[in-house]
Amino acid sequence: MALEHDIASLVEASEALASTVDNQIESINNTVSSKMTEVNNFVAQQKARVDSSLDDLTIIGDGERGTLSMGIAHFFTSGYGSTNVHLRLPLNVEVDTEMFHLKVRGYAYHEAKAIDATFVGYAYAHVDNLVQEQATGTHLPTLYVGEDKHVYCRLSFEKKHYAMFSVDAMRVGSGRLLKAGDIRVIESDEEQVSGDDHAG
């Protein structure tokens, strides 16, 4: 009888142990599943941050003065002959009081010349004009105010075949950080244009 009792106790203890082990396995599985979900969420967040950073590679800096925005406007032509290329800035001298700094770099293939120009100035609504401006570099860089009162930068090419350039901006003084889509590139034989006359 004692043996049967011991066997029954042993079976009961074995069943209790099996139940405990089953519960521990379920708890471990739940913990592992929870941790896997946490890891997957963390990886997804990091991937989103990386993807966002890759999308924002055009911005170098924290948005304050000195921050650069790269490649915000582009020009390319495979045509022939001479031309002027105008950059219409979003700055209106009757409305805006903002400084700007643009750097244009590229290659005028048919002229066998580098394109390298810098434009700085101050759209100053208090006097309805562009002040403290300078345009330096290759291809006769020029600043002017169009009939639409916007600030324009101009580069002139004797031979435009396979001319291409890219425009970078720096946030300076009282200016904003110009970004992709802010500058309209207009090719024209004219020395001065108005953006309203050259839509697109």
Describe the overall structure:
This protein is α+β, with helices and mostly antiparallel strands. It has one helix at 2-55; strands spanning 59-60, 68-77, 83-92, 97-108, 113-124, 129-137, 142-145, 150-157, 163-170, 184-188. The strands form 2 sheets. Strands 1-2-9-4-5-6 form a 6-stranded antiparallel beta sheet, with no helix packed on it.
Question: Notable features of this structure?
Answer:
10 strands, alpha+beta, six-stranded antiparallel β-sheet, four-stranded antiparallel β-sheet
State the shape. elongated
Main sheet: strand order: 1-2-9-4-5-6
Mean pLDDT: 89
Question: Number of helical segments?
Answer: 1
- Low-pLDDT stretches are none
Category by helix and strand content? alpha+beta
Largest sheet: 6 strands, antiparallel
How big a fraction of the residues is strand? Answer: 35-45%
Q: How many strands in all?
A: 10
Radius of gyration: 33 Å
**Spatial gap, N to C terminus:** 101 Å
Helix content: 25-40%
SSE run: HEEEEEEEEEE
